């Protein structure tokens, strides 16, 4: 894949999704542990970023937006995550837990990665 790290204009998750679509891509979809580790390594020293992970359509049913890749193929949640039930429906890579996945409110503003 080809990635675009958008770190100068933090946005909500929906805005990030739309911005990636307008570039002809999508929010990053993690297909393998190798891909996740590769991105996490690049992110060291950076801020939190949005991924395509979300459970907006159905609480607890996490998907990768714009992909039929099975979310359950990967388990990269931080300890105790996802924690936010219906309040937190979008997935970020969270710097405070070494860029593991954390569910957070979709109207938070983050950097994001398109692919
Ligand atoms: Ca990918
Ligand atoms: Ca949720
Ligand atoms: Ca959380």
UniProtKB/TrEMBL annotation:
<dbReference type="InterPro" id="IPR001304">
    <property type="entry name" value="C-type_lectin-like"/>
</dbReference>
<feature type="domain" description="C-type lectin">
    <location>
        <begin position="1"/>
        <end position="115"/>
    </location>
</feature>
<dbReference type="InterPro" id="IPR016187">
    <property type="entry name" value="CTDL_fold"/>
</dbReference>
<dbReference type="InterPro" id="IPR050111">
    <property type="entry name" value="C-type_lectin/snaclec_domain"/>
</dbReference>
<dbReference type="InterPro" id="IPR016186">
    <property type="entry name" value="C-type_lectin-like/link_sf"/>
</dbReference>
<dbReference type="Pfam" id="PF00059">
    <property type="entry name" value="Lectin_C"/>
</dbReference>
<protein>
    <recommendedName>
        <fullName>C-type lectin domain-containing protein</fullName>
    </recommendedName>
</protein>
């Amino acid at each position: 894949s080809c990635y675009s790290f958008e770190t100068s204009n933090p946005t909500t998750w929906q805005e990030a999704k739309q911005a990636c679509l307008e570039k002809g891509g999508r929010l990053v979809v993690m297909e393998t542990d190798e891909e996740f580790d590769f991105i996490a390594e690049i992110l060291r020293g950076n801020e939190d970023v949005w991924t395509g992970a979300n459970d907006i359509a159905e609480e607890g049913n996490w998907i990768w937006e714009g992909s039929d890749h099975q979310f359950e193929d990967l388990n990269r949640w931080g300890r105790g995550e996802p924690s936010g039930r219906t309040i937190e429906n979008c997935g970020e890579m969270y710097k405070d837990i070494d860029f593991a996945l954390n569910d957070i409110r979709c109207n938070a503003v983050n950097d994001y990665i398109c692919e």
